[in-house]
Amino acid sequence: MITGGWRAQALYTAVKLGLPDQIEAGRSTSGELAEATGANEEGIHRLMRLLVAMGVFEGSDSTGYRNTAVSKALLDAPQSLRDMCLLYGEEFYTAWGHAHHAISTDSSGFEAAFGQSFYAYLGQDKDTAKRFQHAMNAGNMFFQQVPEAFDFAGKMVVDIGGGGGHLLTTILDATPDARGTLFDREHMIPEAREHLAARVGLDRVELVPGDMFQEVPAGGDVYILCRVLAGWDDDAVVKAFENCRRAMADSSSRLLVIDRFVADEKPSVLPALWDLHLLMTTGGRGRTLERFTELLNRAGLEVERSVELPSEHTALVAAARTTA
Fold first, then answer.
1. pLDDT tens, position by position, 38-58
2. Any residues with CB less than 8 A from the CB of 141 and at least 6 apart, and which?
3. Contact between 179 and 196 (Cβ < 8 Å)
4. Residue 324: predicted pLDDT
5. Is the domain defined by 4-72 classed in CATH 3.30.565.10?
6. Counting Cβ atoms within 10 Å, is residue 108 exposed (0-12), middle (13-18) or buried (19+)?
7. Domain extents for the chain?
8. Which overall architecture, per CATH, does domain 140-320 show?
9. 143-157 pLDDT, tens digit each
10. How far apart are the first and last CA of the chain?
């Protein structure tokens, strides 16, 4: 555990230098890799020795280095983990360097490191914003199960904070008679438009910029809030829930809250680790299932059911509370 950060930085360095791509292109010795990347040959040799021991690559200088399934997942290609590795190795690694401050003050390590909030930083740095979206997409291995968790047939689906449009695309691909609205901040709309146009066509999708704490598009049959609430306090989350409830088309409309819930009793590592990562990056927090239920109730919504999804995610299906 103590040396985990060393391994992460070794992997990050290999991706930053583009070593998986160089090996895929046939450059298989330390000398060839050093020449192609402008790095020192001895440094590359020592890095590759560790990464072979870690199972990232195979081979040696004498036999030639080869990619494995691990390093192929880091190639500069669609659905790659490359941008996740770069983001976690740079901005997020720097934020975690302020873990003592963040935990001692219950405030963002990212703000301590960069002097501004993570979301403000994304709004100013388009490259990092794009990398962040790619990282989010790469981590969304549970998306394929969402259409199995809820019947979207014939419905207008409003994805609040929909990012690059990958969840909405998955739903519309699986449900040909559904239509969608992607709602997110202005700087996220261009990438979402490009992705949705290529995958499902803009005739089935409307893209709307805005702020979920002000209002959300009205008339939806299904509203989705997928992993977008952790950076906000309870009052803000209730406000977002209230805006969704007011925007619902009718009593048959539903809100899906998809997140990774923490548990105080018998916790598992991934949700607990992700909770601390949220503190480091946004100053946010994970919430328990009971806490989410309470916040939904405050907004006039009640949980009908919950569905377990991969990677320790859960989908809550909530409806507007009816008065007796």
1. 999 999 999 999 999 999 999
2. 310, 311
3. no
4. 47
5. no
6. buried
7. 4-72, 82-137, 140-320
8. 3-Layer(aba) Sandwich (3.40)
9. 999 999 999 999 999
10. 55
